Amino acid sequence: MDILQIVGLGLAATFLALILREKNPVFALLLTVIVGTFIFIMLVDQIKLVMDMLKRMAETAHLNSVYVATVLKIIGIAYISEFGAQIAKDAGQSALAGKIELAGKIAILVMAIPILTAIVDTVMNLMPQVGGG
Asked: How far apart are CA 86 and CA 114, in angstroms?
């Protein structure tokens, strides 16, 4: 995977989509989705490298694997919802794109609740007991 290949593919698809949009907008959208998916697939190896590195760092730091897995899921949700929202925007459906982004944000918030709970519990344990005996 080379960034020049990805940019070249993206620009070529953009020009082709602009030409197709005048004749058949559905094919232009289909081309955009297919090329976007292909670019995402081209990045899978790079994403896997980053995820493996983050897992090794978490193991070295003796972090709880549940929290690391949750953070990785949150990152995945963010990327997937952004990808879906961009496709919806390309189709001229900005309202639907907004709903996809909202759904992603809510899913991220739900996934983050256990981590936020653990942080609050840790902070509460570090604070001195007030009014206790």
From this structure: 29
pLDDT for position 40: 87
DSSP 129: P
Q: ∠ at Cα 132 (127, 133), nearest 5°?
A: 130
Q: What pTM was computed for the model?
A: 0.72
Cα–Cα distance, 117 to 120 (Å, whole number) = 5
Mapped onto helix, strand or coil, the DSSP state of residue 100 is: helix
Distance between CA atoms of residues 108 and 76, nearest Å: 10
Instruction: Write down the pLDDT at residue 15.
Output: 92
Here the tokens at position 62 are 């003796």
How far is the C-alpha of 53 from the C-alpha of 76, rounded, in Å? 15
CB 52 within 8 A of CB 33: no
Strand, coil or helix: what is 132?
coil
CB 70 within 8 A of CB 114: yes
* Residues in the chain, total: 133
Q: In 2-131, which ranges are continuous DSSP H helix? A: 3-23, 25-42, 44-60, 65-90, 94-126
